[in-house]
Design goal:
The chain is an alpha/beta fold. It contains 18 helices and 15 strands. α1 links the parallel β1 and β2.
């Protein structure tokens, strides 16, 4: 069995647990012990992480890692730290050390371009972002458009800077400069052959703003190094660990799956999803490449069909999906998409109809047609990019291993989490139960407190009501709230008959 050492983006289940669930019996996946990882804004033990890599790399076939974890101690710490540039760049030197002493080690790395949310909240940002986060985002948009000659509203820029204050803006921009420096150093390591495969996703991006401007600076360096065909830059974040594990495994097996893309809406490829900066059709191509696949020229040339449920116009948040609109009801043809996958080829469902949750109407169709155990993969959580990367990773593994126990258990998890929690239960509990205990959306006090119990109970009801064709086979073994808030839940789900199905 191949040994892969894996350094996740952070300690949340989507980054730390998903890979362990999915690849449990496919590779010897070595992850850092939980005790040296961080806790939301508390960074991981970065010195401990380097020692972990030195301990495990010697007999490894590959290293798949988040540079944000290696350098800053995790995703949120990358937005909050006060390290100087030489310090954080120096933490990348361990990769040169590992490669020098084990030249056969393949290193797959990803490093994010720092996000700039358009809302005011300090849940994941510096404290001052609660007061002026929206203004920081707007300032970035104004400065970017001014730079491009699209707008030049000096009065608005001055007012935004006054609201933000010079101290806060200096702090924010200094951290962005350090992030750029790390990304540029990563491209140099790729050029030197220390990193064998590098992607630079954009965390919660937009067409204009600070993130988009930073992307240009990093891309200029990539072009100058002659690496424009070798380093991918695209929207994404929390799915990237799975994507690079997928790419690594495909390389180890000598695979490059051909993907045929099928949309439920003719014009869906042209929409720009929320939290992203480009048309969906272009993002899909990047994600197929990042996971180690290629686009099929036609259906006959494909190994797997990627089904996309996105609408033809603006994508709505999942919590508002009960409101009928022409874009979802008339400008898509979900029945035809479902009929198409009956042709017999493996199919992946990337449920990107809505942002931040699965489409309950789609679940009803899959349940009614008794198709819930048929996909090679399903995902429908958070951003379009999160969904794509997760679905492709599971689907590509299915092409290697087939319908294993891990496949069915991960399919069960995706249904329970993406349809159940993200699509319904998250806001059912948030809107109707939190205030009874003095909590709010960003604070539920305990990982395994009363709210976790309420969520588990509601998810069990959801499975019984919406997944009746397989409800007797699905077990929700555990639920907890990783960052003691409602945005995500840690869930362990099992497909009870998965042992029989895999035989």
């Amino acid at each position: 069995m191949k040994k892969i050492v894996f350094l996740p983006l952070d300690e949340r289940p989507c980054n730390y647990k998903f890979p362990q669930f999915l690849y449990k019996n496919s590779v010897d996946l070595i992850v850092p012990p939980a005790e040296i990882l961080g806790d939301k804004k508390k960074p991981a033990n970065v010195d401990g992480l380097s020692e972990f890599l030195r301990k495990e790399y010697g007999d490894a076939d590959a290293l798949v890692l988040s540079l944000d974890m290696l350098v800053y101690g995790g995703l949120l710490p990358s937005r909050l730290h006060y390290f100087e540039t030489p310090t954080i760049e120096g933490r990348l030197n361990v990769l040169e050390e590992l490669k020098r002493t084990n030249p056969k080690l393949k290193i797959y790395a990803f490093s994010l371009i720092m996000r700039c949310p358009k809302y005011s909240s300090d849940d994941e940002e510096p404290d001052y972002y609660a007061d002026c986060g929206a203004e920081i985002h707007k300032l970035g948009v104004c400065l970017h458009k001014k730079k491009l000659g699209l707008e030049d509203d000096e009065t608005q820029i001055a007012e935004l800077e006054r609201k933000i204050t010079a101290k806060n803006l200096d702090d924010y921009l200094s951290r962005r400069k350090k992030n750029i420096a790390v990304n540029i150093r990563a491209t140099e390591l790729r050029k030197a052959g220390v990193i064998d495969y590098l992607v630079i996703p954009q965390d919660d991006s937009a067409p204009y703003g600070f993130t988009a401007m930073d992307q240009v600076l990093v891309r200029d360096k990539i072009n100058a190094l002659g690496l424009s065909a070798k380093i991918l830059m695209y929207p994404g974040a929390d799915e990237t660990g799975l994507a690079l594990l997928s790419h690594c495994l495909n390389d180890l097996y000598g695979k490059k799956p051909a993907v045929y893309i099928r949309y439920a809406a003719e014009n869906a490829s042209a929409i720009i999803p929320p939290y992203e900066d480009r048309p969906m059709g272009e993002t899909v191509k990047y994600h197929v490449m990042a996971a180690g696949g290629r686009l099929a020229s036609c259906f006959a040339d494909s190994d797997v069909v990627l089904c996309l449920t996105a609408p033809s116009k603006g994508m709505t948040e999942a919590r508002y999906q009960n409101k009928h609109t022409v874009e979802y009801d008339c400008f898509r043809n979900v029945p035809e998409l479902i009929d198409f996958v009956s042709v017999g080829k493996p199919f992946i469902i990337a449920d990107n109809a809505y942002a931040n949750g699965g489409e309950l109407a789609l679940l009803n169709v899959l349940n009614e047609e008794k198709l819930l155990d048929k996909p090679a993969a399903y995902a429908g959580w958070n951003t379009n990019a999160n969904t794509l990367g997760t679905a492709l990773a599971q689907g590509f593994l299915y092409l290697i291993n087939g319908a294993t126990k891990e496949h069915y258990d991960f399919l069960a998890l995706r249904y329970v989490e993406d349809f159940g929690y993200c699509g319904k239960v998250r806001f059912l509990v948030a809107d109707n139960m939190l205030s009874d205990y003095g909590y709010d959306y960003f604070y539920v006090e305990n990982e395994r407190g009363v709210i976790a119990e309420k969520v588990k109970a509601e998810l069990e009801k959801f499975v019984a009501e919406h997944m009746s064709s397989v409800a007797d086979e699905i077990e929700i073994a555990d639920v907890y709230m990783p960052w003691r808030r409602m945005f995500e839940a840690g869930i362990t789900a099992k497909w009870k008959k998965s042992d029989e199905k895999s035989r």
